TrEMBL record:
Residues 1-18 form the signal peptide. It comes from Yersinia intermedia. It comes from the Bacteria. Keywords: Signal. This is DUF3757 domain-containing protein.
Amino acid sequence: MKYKLPFLMLFTSFNTLAQLHCPPVDTIKQTGAVYSAPAAGNEEWIGMLQGTLPPNSSVKNFSEALIIIDSDKNNIVGQGEFQKCTYNLQAQGRQIDMFYGNKTWSVSISGQPLWVYQQNPFLEIYQCSGVAAEECKFDILAPG
């Protein structure tokens, strides 16, 4: 059994471990200030609301997903470090950031046209917004 994953990875482009997307709004569960959603494999989407918990703190809708490009590395177009999926809450002006496995991941968005490249003096990013959360797809890349 333990040899199946490495064997399957031989047939996967870009050493992709899994294709994921931000969790759909209706899959996000709230327990106090902690938000969670199921994900592929052994990981989970998790977010923690900072500050005082507002009276109506349920998730309203999807805002954006963000990938940061590491300009210090010899970057391949369409790759970067996946940061977060951000959701608007019912409470006016409040948002929750959700993280896959509570860490950053090297990802590829090759062939995913909804991600928009943006550059400012400090960062280069890819942003996915204005669509349903599950439309912001990305591939987790194998380390190394």
